[in-house]
Amino acid sequence: AGYCTHIEIDFNADGSVTVTDDGRGIPVDTHSKTGKSALETVLTVLHAGGKFGGGGYKVSGGLHGVGVSVVNALSEWVEVTVFRDKKEYRQRFERGTPVTELTSKPIKENRTGTSLRFFPDTVIFTSGIEFDCDTIASRLRELAYLNAGVKVTLTDNRLELLKRETPRIETYCYEGGIREYIAYMNNDKQPLHEDIIYISGERSNVQIEVALQWCTDAYSDTILGFANNIRTIDGGTHLEGLKTVLTRTLNTIARKRNKLKEGEANLGGENIREGLTAVISAKVPDPEFEGQTKTRLGNPEVRGIVDSLVGEALTEYLEFNPGIADAVIEKAIQAFKAAEAARRARDLVRRK
């Protein structure tokens, strides 16, 4: 994490896939527990990736630590090339088992990184091994937004399948990170404020990034949560912390700016979030994912970190930008009044 600047994904004409990066390269020295090279261990042993045992990465994007070893197990063959220490290392695996020794040869350039080519096993994937380019492109775009400045290139060389003469090539690179993600999602909406509110910080080794923008022509909220680049569709402590701090901060500012009078009820969270598009990305060193599909972040400490970090930064931002604060509060008050009117109308109909 933090070393790679370019990742290339190639769908090859023969049905195989090549993934290449310019990171540090998978280590090749002998692994203390297995006696094999670290490269072979990572490809053949579950839970042997860089995120286990500490010290490898500050945070990493996987869930279970079974990524590349599972790709190996489910492939007819895998060929790995590692560039590090002015050498090129190669090894081939078939159905999860190494069929060659790790070989090395010196190279002149000081290149680093890993290139892995794999061919899915048709014995396991009996219904076909064609990758859906659109599905993968969508996930790669998401990853590029979440990792500002990292360039991701997708090349589809399956010309027969594409029914075209040239490969499909797409490149994603967003220097603005999740701010650009918000702009992309709000592309066809009417923003309440042009400036996308962006907050980032780190506490107790947990990195938090938040981007927010309210729109006038939206009456629900769109809040996307990510933990270590994994989309947490079932929410979690990072999203709970964000919702709590938005409600508290905006109510406090509404009272300070005399938009809510003494004795008036606080605005509800759903009123404040009406029309909001938000992305929160948490990078947690030891994530606890909950639920069968691991799509909910469970770390209790993240809630408090989000609350305090976002609370301080958002309060400061809205005090420096009173026009934006007033616009968001006015919209929330309108939402509250509309909800009250709807409730009264419902009660009236029921009483009849």
Automatic annotation (TrEMBL):
Residues 2-124 form the Histidine kinase/HSP90-like ATPase domain. One of its GO terms (biological process) is DNA topological change. SMART domains: HATPase_c, TOP2c. GO terms for molecular function: ATP binding; DNA binding; DNA topoisomerase type II (double strand cut, ATP-hydrolyzing) activity. SUPFAM superfamilies: ATPase domain of HSP90 chaperone/DNA topoisomerase II/histidine kinase, Ribosomal protein S5 domain 2-like. Pfam families: DNA_gyraseB, HATPase_c. CDD domains: TopoII_Trans_DNA_gyrase. Its cofactor is Mg(2+). It comes from the Bacteria. It catalyses: ATP-dependent breakage, passage and rejoining of double-stranded DNA. Its EC number is 5.6.2.2. The keyword Ligase does not apply. Keywords: ATP-binding, DNA-binding, Isomerase, Nucleotide-binding, Topoisomerase. Belongs to the type II topoisomerase GyrB family. This is DNA topoisomerase (ATP-hydrolyzing).
